[in-house]
């Protein structure tokens, strides 16, 4: 590690002179040309301030802890970490991430580890939108829930979630504007997913706004958000002669299952069947042929908001009560939606 002593030796000045300049207190006390030389040498040597040592003097570590529940291992959710990391760095904060790999028994140990690093705020990041039990932290420490909300609504914590209902509304409206009237929705039955209720609400609201009555026969539940589970319901919906002309899927992986079954049945996408997913998951939505129109979860925006909100709390720039926000879920248009085929594709039996 490069120290103030190393810089002082290179420039030929005292350690105190280096300290004054690098802490922006050298004006009038250190000659301007010497100050420039000190900063130049510090940059060339790659000097970074010892935040721990500084924290002992100022009682501020400039460190934010992030407790991750499998987020670090989920490809598309990793954008949350990127957004939080960049935003923290822009404000001269360091983000330390501890991932519990979904083991709730490790939460207490993980938080203790972060507290021992003298964190000033804690971000609790979930692997999908759901309610969470907050870990025990010092009362004065800002806590922000990322992609979730506290199970105990009276908890002193801020949170950010995606606008699931708005995203589903936009997806269904896009299909309606393309001319579709028989629009199916493949949801999930697992009640752990808060989004299952919110996305169905958006789907039904869009139909109602267009004067269409939701058809219970066109609403099915996959056992989980996987491709395999999607195939089961796809065969159920697409193998009939009164099949839907379009389907909105809870996830991109379910949509992938519909692609596979449509191919098995000889149905062309989007000519015979239009499909919209949800997530904008890399290596699925942008890799399918034709490309999958989907709803993007705002992972990076949520991560950015969480870090900025934690810092605002630390600086006293946030309201006294808990703050929550919903981030828009934009529709990403690709090539899986077209007007319904008046002749209609006949599925193979």
TrEMBL record:
Q: Where is the HTH lacI-type domain?
A: 2-58
Q: Which GO terms describe its molecular function?
A: DNA-binding transcription factor activity; transcription cis-regulatory region binding
> What PROSITE patterns is this protein classified in?
HTH_LACI_2 (PS50932)
> Do you know which SUPFAM superfamilies this protein is assigned to?
lambda repressor-like DNA-binding domains, Periplasmic binding protein-like I
Which keywords has UniProt assigned to this entry?
DNA-binding, Repressor, Transcription, Transcription regulation
InterPro entries associated with the record: HTH_LacI (IPR000843), LacI/GalR-like_sensor (IPR046335), Lambda_DNA-bd_dom_sf (IPR010982), Peripla_BP_I (IPR028082)
In which domain of life is the source organism classified?
Bacteria
Classification via Pfam families: LacI, Peripla_BP_3
Please tell me the species this chain comes from: Tessaracoccus defluvii
Repressor: present as a keyword of the record? yes
Q: What is this protein called?
A: LacI family DNA-binding transcriptional regulator
DNA-binding listed as a keyword: yes
Which residue ranges does the record annotate as region Disordered?
A: 316-349
